[in-house]
Amino acid sequence: MTEEYGNAGSRTHGYGVDALREVNKARERIAHCLASTPDEVIFTSGATEANNLGILGLAAHGSATGRRHIVSSTIEHKAVLEPLDHLRSCGFEVTLVRAGPSGRVSAEEVAAALRPDTLLVSVMHGNNETGALQPIEEIAARLHDEDTFLHVDAAQTFGREPHALRNRRIDLISISGHKIFGPKGIGALIVRRREGRRAPIAPLMFGGGQERGLRPGTLPTPLIAGLGLAAELAEKECEGRREQCLAIRSDALAALARLKPILHGEGGPVLPHILSFALPGIDSEAIMVSAKDLVAISNGSACTSSHYAPSHVLTAMGLQDDVVQGTIRLSWSHMTPPVAWDQFARRLDDLRF
Fold first, then answer.
1. Are 151 and 145 in contact (CB under 8 A)?
2. Which of 18, 83, 102, 203 has the most CB atoms around its CB within 10 Å?
3. Active site residues
4. Cα–Cα distance for residue pair 105/265, rounded to 1 Å
5. Could you say which DSSP state residue 226 is in?
6. Using CA atoms, how far apart are residues 309 and 273, in angstroms rounded to an integer?
7. Lowest-pLDDT choice from 1-10, 77-86, 197-206, 226-235
8. Domain 14-236 CATH (choose: 3.40.50.720, 3.30.530.20, 3.40.50.2000, 3.40.640.10)
9. Would you give the DSSP letter of residue 187?
C-alpha cells in the first residue's frame, strides 16, 4: 500500500510496471491452485461479485441462443439464489434441485433436470452452513451438452479441496480471499477455456476495460497481492491445515457425544472446519448467550445475521422446525487456539434443566 502504490494499468513508468508484476504473480499463484492459466483469473471484490458476474453475465448469451433454463440447488448461498431470482424475473426458468437430509444434492437429480435449452448448472462445492461437500465432479461428468456451462461457488473450498476444482469441465469458479486468510474485499471468477473457448460472459459494469473487459476499475494491487500469497500458502499447507482442523473437530465431537447432538452434513464428505448441530429441546439463542465467553457462535450465515430468519439451507434439507430453530454453527481454522470443549459441553448440558 505504500511501497508499490502504482496503478497496474499504467505501463509507461516503473511504478505501474512494479504493480503489474505483483498482479501477474498473484494470477499465477491462484491459477496454479486450480490447474488453470493466469489469463483465466478475473479479479472481483469477492465471491459474491464473482457469482453475480458468472451467472448474470451469461444472460445475454442465453437470450440470444434461446437457452433460458438454469439448474441449481435449494442450498446455494444467497449470492447465487438472488441472481437466479433476478433472471427468473427476466423470463428465465430456474430448476432448483432439493438436497436430502444429509445436506447434499444428487448428481443424478441434477442430470435429470437438464433440458436441451439448459444454459447453466450452478452448484456450490462446500455448503457454508453445514460443511457438506457437493458431488461437483459427478455433476461435471454428467454434462454431455457442450453448450451447457458449469459454475461452482467455491468460496468455502478454494485452497482446501483442490482436487475436484481442477476438473476442466468446470467452466466458472468463484473464490473469495478472506476464506483463505487473505484480505477482505478481494476474490476472483475463474473463466476457463474449454476446447479453446470461454464461457461467453458479458460484463455487468463498464468503464475502463480492465480484466479482459469483464470488470472495469483500477485494480487493488495490495489486495490482489495478498490473495495471491494466501492462495500459494493454502496450497502448500493444505494437508497440514486439514489435519489440524480435523483434530479440532474430533475433540469437539468427543466432548459433545454424550449430549447426542443432531449433526448436519454427516453421512458423506464434509469440510473439516465446519460443525453444524442441534440439541433437541435447546434453542440456539440460549446456546449463544450461555457460551459466548467460550466460543463465538452463529445460528446461520454471516451474510444474513443482521436479521434472523430460519436457515433456508436447513429448511431445504427437510428438517423439523425445532431442529432448524435449535441449530448452531461452529467454524475454526488451523490457527484456532485450544478450545475448552468439555466446559462448552457442560454449559449446553446445563441448559436442559
1. no
2. 83
3. 303
4. 11
5. H
6. 24
7. 1-10
8. 3.40.640.10
9. E
